């Protein structure tokens, strides 16, 4: 059986298990895949950004997403919590695919967060 293909910009439920500290997410939460498709296809891991539906405050390094997991609940992408995870942590199939507009907002924050000086263009086929 062929391995499942995970795509840039997709949102999956992710098991963020293990030891956590402070404001780190634990348990099952939506996660946005931000690694490029070549990496996702070749490796055993993907790079994700955890998401939350706790909207009492949205920080400048977070992106509001309406209907985050296609379940009627709004949420946010917590761009400052980038994680490389094993694909086994991904649950089921993709629950959403972010539009280019939201992915560009995420990329803008990543550029600032990591002090990247070049422009990242979205080349993934949405």
Structure description:
With 126 residues, the protein is an alpha+beta fold. It has a single domain (10-113), classed as SH3 type barrels (Roll). It has 2 helices and 7 strands, in the order ββαβββββα. Strands 1, 2, 3, 4, 5, 6 and 7 form a 7-stranded antiparallel beta sheet that branches. The protein is globular and about 40 Å long.
Task: Provide a compact summary of the structure.
It contains two helices and seven strands, in the order ββαβββββα. It has helices at residues 37-42, 100-113, and strands at residues 10-16, 27-33, 45-52, 62-65, 75-78, 83-86, 90-97. The longest helix is centred in the C-terminal third of the chain and has 14 residues, at 100-113.
Q: Radius of gyration, rounded?
A: 14 Å
- Which class do the helix and strand fractions yield? alpha+beta
How many individual domains? 1
Estimate the mean pLDDT confidence: 91
Give the N-terminus to C-terminus distance in angstroms.
25 Å
As for the CATH topology, it is SH3 type barrels
Largest sheet data: 7 strands, antiparallel
Number of helices: 2
CATH architectural arrangement: Roll
Annotation, overall tally of beta strands: 7
CATH class: Mainly Beta
Low-confidence stretches: none
Shape: globular
Helix-strand pattern: EEHEEEEEH
Measured by DSSP, the beta-strand proportion falls in 25-35%
């Amino acid at each position: 059986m062929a391995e499942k293909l995970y795509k840039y910009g997709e949102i999956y439920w992710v098991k963020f298990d293990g030891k956590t500290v402070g404001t780190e997410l634990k348990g099952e939460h939506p996660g946005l895949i931000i690694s490029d498709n070549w990496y996702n296809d070749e490796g055993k891991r993907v790079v994700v950004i955890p998401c939350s539906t706790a909207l009492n405050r949205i920080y400048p390094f977070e992106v509001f997403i309406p209907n985050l997991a296609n379940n009627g609940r709004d949420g946010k992408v917590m761009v400052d919590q980038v994680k490389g995870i094993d694909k086994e942590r991904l649950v089921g199939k993709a629950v959403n695919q972010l539009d280019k507009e939201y992915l560009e907002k995420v990329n803008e924050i990543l550029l600032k967060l990591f002090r990247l000086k070049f422009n990242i263009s979205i080349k993934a086929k949405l």
